[in-house]
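Q: Entry one of two.
A:
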Amino acid sequence: MFVVGVDPGLTRCGFAVLDFESRDRIISAGVLESARDLAIQDRLASLHADLLGLFGEFPPSVVVVERVLFQTNVKTAMSVGQAAGVALCVAAMSGAEVVSYSSNEVKLTLCGSGSATKSEVQMMVQREFGLIKPPSPPDVADAIGLALHHWLLHSRGLSTPGQLR
């Protein structure tokens, strides 16, 4: 069962393909990038094509897309929202179950605090998966964290992160 985490972004979209039935649970992880000098529609089309390719190579059972609740920069919020929309669309087209969690929910599950820093999330992902160093850039750790968060909730039959404690 592939659980794919997607940390949406237009310049860098983090992704992680996890298989919790496998010994090597992180199957693939990285970032999908688009050039800043391209028109927005071309960047979104590029992300669409990249996600189609990813889901074609690793057919997901579940796709977990980060839900954006708040951004201080309106321009960033718009582009992240557009990237999230593309990810949700491609995920739905793949036939996978599609779920969304906020970064605060994931941080609460992984670090015990919804206000944990990106570096704390990176360190917790490193520790959970026995990695030599923290995943980088943080978008990768966030995508891994999203997939792990969902799996922890699902495997324990829980519906909210607060129930993990």
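Q: Entry two of two.
A:
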Amino acid sequence: MRRIHKRVVSISGDLGSGKSSVSRLLADKLGWKYYSTGMAQRKIATEMGITTGELNRLSLSDISVDAKIDAVFKNPPWGDCPCVIDSRLAFYFLPNSFKVCLLVDPQIAAERIFHDMKRKGEAKYRTIKQAKEACAQRRALELARFMQNYNLDITNLNQFDLVIDTTNLSVEEVCDKIIRHLPFNV
């Protein structure tokens, strides 16, 4: 039986599934630290003067991009504090975390992304259709990148302790579901 580190919850999932919103609220509800590798990725993209989509494309030919993002797991800024980590690959780098994967219907994801005015470091879309196409392209790039750089298929849901389809759930409902499934008392 796999030992679960009772102080770390890693949340992965589809674009627009609510990873960041769920992670922030969950950390708040638990009184834990919150960390997002998306923040690190957006910071790197901004420093380079490109979008996160362009950064993803660049990372296919320049492994140093992922090395910069992955470095956070070698010396985690959250230290030994209990934390919730919003990261597509945290489950891979932190195998003893409680690993959650959030799924969402692509149309709903595109609508969420299109209407989210707080998204930083990403292109603004003129239509929901444009957002949906961009999400599909980004997902394809990430699937290829993760396979190429880590030999990792993130679509294999057997890698997770809990999988939740957020299509018809609120952020609050998703958090409550995660809390109910935690293998330890909070």
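A: Comment on entry two: The chain has a mean pLDDT of 86. The beta strands are 8-13, 33-36, 83-86, 98-103, 162-165.
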